[in-house]
Amino acid sequence: MSDTNPAADPANPATPANPAPRGGPPGRLMAAETAEQPAVLRRILTEGAPQIRETAERIAARAPRFVLLTARGTSDNAALYAKYLLEILLGRPCGMTSMSTTTAYGARQDLTDCLVIAVSQSGGSPDLVASTRAAREAGAVTLAVTNNAGSPLAAAAEFHIDVLAGPERALPATKTYTAELLALYLLVDGLRGGDGTAAKVLPDLAETVLARRDEVRRLAARYRFAERMVLTSRGYGYPTAREAALKLMETSYIPALAYSGADLLHGPLAMVDNVSPVIAVVPEGKGGEALRPVLDRLRDRGADLVVVGPGAEVARASAGFVLPTGELPEELQPVLEILPLQLLAYEVTIARGQDPDAPRALAKVTETR
Length: 369
What we know:
Layout: H1 28-35, H2 37-60, E1 66-71, H3 73-89, E2 94-96, H4 100-103, E3 114-120, H5 126-137, E4 141-146, H6 152-156, E5 159-162, H7 175-191, H8 202-210, H9 213-220, E6 229-233, H10 238-252, E7 256-260, H11 261-265, E8 277-281, H12 286-300, E9 304-309, H13 311-315, E10 319-322, H14 334-351
Parallel strand pairs: 1-2, 1-3, 3-4, 4-5, 6-7, 6-8, 8-9, 9-10
GO molecular function, one term: carbohydrate derivative binding
Domain SIS: 55-197, 219-359
Organism: Streptomyces carminius
């Protein structure tokens, strides 16, 4: 789902107070917002990139030595992606925060020389706002990354980046997730003095992937009656596996478990058989190389293995989706990897006779403290 959201701000339709309206075909909002993603990526690259680069320069001038990331839901997976970027590309030690240490236990920390990045589609969750305020009071450089420039979180942080995704009305977050990924990449690239050139091919590649919906629809047929699914990846692909599992669970209600390939071998591999499907997200690069021994073990166990990634790995699996990554750096591939998996969650849900726009028991407004 979207991360935690506030009540609607009349001045900003990106955070509606009510769930997706009834009427019309099931999933029409999720389908439309998924299709918007190439346009959103272009908007960030043309309209948002200069401000992101300026923000990165101002933060770099403060020379933070450590980074803490804080988020919920879908945005938590985007924050995990940023953790990989910051550790690999910048060599900065990073951690994912536990907001309850501040909001529930009242812990006070010394965050001098620390950068705290709060990622939230809505920017309204009380615990995100409170923990960001506490971090700023504790001496941290604070940055909010949201889809709502007028949100309480944007006001609480010293710096703000608007991901420019526009209103998102379906409960499952799609375009806000990829917008967060690209904005976070541009931030980290800016912190190391880059200009984001490598990302300019993303909108066209995203259009190519989303045009292949029929392939995904055929793939979805094998999951219509699935009782459980396992998703796995390594490196930059691991946040993609987690986000895909979340999308499948909240739309189709299939229990979907996401594991790092390394963690999968430390016990959970025992539950893999030839009945429960396994989806492997295989990056082109070091993450994919690290995952190959895991793929071999899965094949040895007779797993119903589906691969999203290189053609050579798809050919060795039960089925799959070949990503057109070309020369795209591994650190940018997650923006593409999630697209066929968003489509898969949508198509599986429709095949099971459910409405992905409005999953049961969920609401767009979810407040945590």
